[in-house]
Amino acid sequence: MNKKNTPEKTRQRTLAFVAVFVGFLGTSIFASINVFAAHQKNQDFSQLDAEEKFSRLPEYLLVDRKLLKDSDAIVRYSAAEALGKLRAKESIPQLTELLKDSATTVRCSAAKALGELRSKESIPQLTELLKDSNELVRFSVVEALGELRAKESIPQLTELLKDSSNLVRFLTKMVVEELRSEKKISRLLIKGLDYEKRNPIFLRSIDEISDKVDKFIKDHRSMDDYRRLENLRTLAESDAKKILPKLIIEFNKSNGIEQYKMLEALIILDGLNESQIREAMLKSIKELERFDKLSGSEEKSLIIGTSTKLYLKYNQKYKESKIKRPSLNQSRQIRDRQWILTGSASAISLLLLLLTLFCLRQVQRIGWNDHLTCYFPEEVVGELIALRRELTQANQSKLLIETKLLYEIFTLIWGFYIQINIDNLSLPSKDQRRR
Amino acid sequence: VQRMLVWEAMVMPRQKDDADSVRLSAIEEDILTALLGRELYGLELLGLMNPGRPKELSFGSLYPALNRLEKKGFIRWRWGDEQDESGGARRKYYQVTGLGANTLSQAQQYRISLAQRILGWFALGGI
User: Fold this and answer.
1) Is the ipTM above a cut-off of 0.85?
2) Rounded Cα–Cα distance for residues A120 and A140 (Å)
3) Number of C-beta neighbours around residue A11 at 10 A
4) Which of B58, B54, B73, B84 lies closest to B15 in space, CA to CA?
5) Which of A363, A312, A319, A374 is nearest to A82 (CA)?
6) Which among A148, A142, A145 is positioned nearest to A165, based on CA atoms?
7) Which residues of chain B neighbour A376 with C-beta distances below 8 Å?
8) Out of B20, B42, B73, whose CB is closest to A383?
9) A32-44 tens-digit pLDDT
10) How many CB atoms lie within 10 A of CB A372?
């Protein structure tokens, strides 16, 4: 090899190094832009379609719509309740802040949500709130502390046994007992008491069967509270299902707030099929999108509540049908963009690499026989070179020679690296033979 | 008869030690036949063996076979002197050892005797 440094070669070498440097720099810049863009896009909901927004509903409510920071107290109240039901752990810091909210309802639902989210870290703030002036707030906090199994707050809870409110005293007694004895009954009882009473249409359907319910309670006086409540609930549900067809007709006729109430009842009674749930959820996302333009607080609150219930029902349906849910952690568009960015970055770096190799080709020329000596014993290299010379002298076409040599090299790789090693296992070594 | 005796004296004890190493495969037998009384390098060997061969041999199958023959002690080699034809790399020249020649002739004789036996069997069957 000629190692003389002519000006031409120096120039080419510099060019090659510049190409490599630019390639590295370009790739790293592309990569960092890519990562940054992906992070940004992950927080930006404006580019997602309705279904994807819905699939990330907890995040959407919290990050994009910022409902916990809404000026309307009812919205904050419904949002806190919804995030608790949606098990949105990422909302814990904001919910803890809401414990100091001016509106009592908001404080109530924030405390309840923290209990549902099993947020042990907010036990101190919750314990502080036991001294709240409002009995509903105290009630919710006691409930949340029971949910969190906050044994450390038993002293503060015991003080509440002398509370002015009957309701608070009753619940505190149950919770304290539960915390001391590790029983679970009381909480289930609370759940039974709290059973979806907010929906008037559902209540109406229960009214229609109230005679039956009364009779049932009379018949089952001997049963303990919890079991009676559970049975009552099943009975109410099974009878309410009879009014489903009527409810669906009403639902299709209605609009506005009335329709939302119907929808809520339908969700509770499980009267919607999957496509109806899908339709309803796309509609609710549209409503959430134009949330700021809505006027009525009740309507807003209903929308939040309904979409939460839809989300939970939809996920449950997916779970039941065991259909593999499409991966929704990342949006489709973001993924596409990432692919384009990564793809172009790698294409550019590959091009630069090829350019570099092309430049280096002139600087450091290594003959192919020198390459071969790296892989094969000397005699084989000698034979291959002789074969090439022989073929060239026989005036064979260049393509044919190269193909032939390439074939030989591949078979030699197999022969030398695999076959000979396998053979040697069963063959005597040189020393053994000479013995 | 004398050659057979010599062969027995030379090879038989070995054969008992490692019977496997004395067995000859078709390609090994071909190589030994081509090398008998000659000194050849790889490309020459291929040039000699390939014409008329149903499936052409390549270096990839020649070298493992040469390795086996060498390990069994049937061939030996020396480095060649001339280097200009092979671009600076030396070549190995292979030769048959006495053991190799004997093993080959034994294999060939076996084949002849087998053919004769078969012919005799046919003759008997013909009657």
Assistant:
1) no
2) 16
3) 12
4) B73
5) A312
6) A142
7) none
8) B42
9) 777 777 666 666 6
10) 20
